[in-house]
């Protein structure tokens, strides 16, 4: 018995040390970003951030980079534009995927498993490969109907939603499969429609999975540059402004670092607000 207890303790200690090591490695870029944000332009250009850590008294430290970012007139507008893109682009795929996952889980129809396999297969299609034909198709639609989605917020919302749907359906369907089928059958016997079951039973019980995907999608859209640059280039988002902070000669790394830390505020708020649902929503359906 003592040997078993000792093995368990050794395993916990080894696991803890491994997690600490992984967290340390993962934090290195963030630490470098933070150190660079507090350095002057000349100091950041003359030596690496790791040298500043080991010789802090020999470096020039300043809040000028944060002042530069916060006093720019275009930064607040870009912040608002990013929110306008990120919030609908997160909510839209969640709503569509919830209906689809609900049908794949509880409603019997011909070819259900085949359709779901196709959805899963679409997860491997890279955004960059599909973007060119999609843009060409949207331009053809504009020429035929006069309706243009390129250069508008709805276009960015639809693009983000379309590429997020396969993963969203996969996560939500796996979670819904863990819900008690007896509860659904009891609701059907009591006369509840599929629509009522969806809104009053399935959706409230699926909050962990919805929150987990919302975190993924919001972070993805918030950090996106490509789709935002193509579809809302006239209304620049934060990633575009951060790139512009680099300067013509690529010597504005301290400004980029400061701007990056400021842009982290909203994603951190979203993550910590939904953190308690995160693990439960992702691991549901992995074991029976």
What does this structure look like?
The protein is mainly α and 288 residues long. The chain has two domains: 1-62; 63-283, MetI-like (MetI-like fold, Orthogonal Bundle), CATH 1.10.3720.10. The protein has helices at 2-37, 41-46, 49-54, 64-70, 73-106, 112-121, 127-145, 153-176, 181-189, 194-205, 207-222, 226-231, 238-245, 253-263, 265-283. The longest helix has 36 residues, at 2-37. The model has no long low-confidence stretch (mean pLDDT 83).
Per-chain topology:
Blueprint: H1 2-37, H2 41-46, H3 49-54, H4 64-70, H5 73-106, H6 112-121, H7 127-145, H8 153-176, H9 181-189, H10 194-205, H11 207-222, H12 226-231, H13 238-245, H14 253-263, H15 265-283
Helix pairs in contact: 1-14, 4-14, 5-8, 5-11, 6-8, 8-11, 11-15, 13-14
Helix content: over 70%
The CA-CA distance between the termini, in Å, is 30 Å
- What's the CATH first level of the largest domain? Mainly Alpha
Order of secondary-structure elements: HHHHHHHHHHHHHHH
Derived from helix and strand composition plus strand pairing, the structural class reads mainly alpha
How many strand elements?
A: 0
Low-confidence blocks of residues: none
Query: Total domains, how many?
Result: 2
Gyration radius over CA: 24 Å
pLDDT average, as an integer?
Answer: 83
Beta-strand residue fraction: under 5%
Question: What is the CATH topology of the largest domain?
Answer: MetI-like fold
Number of helices: 15
Shape from CA axes? flat
CATH architecture of the largest domain: Orthogonal Bundle
Main sheet summary: none
**CATH homology superfamily of the largest domain:** MetI-like
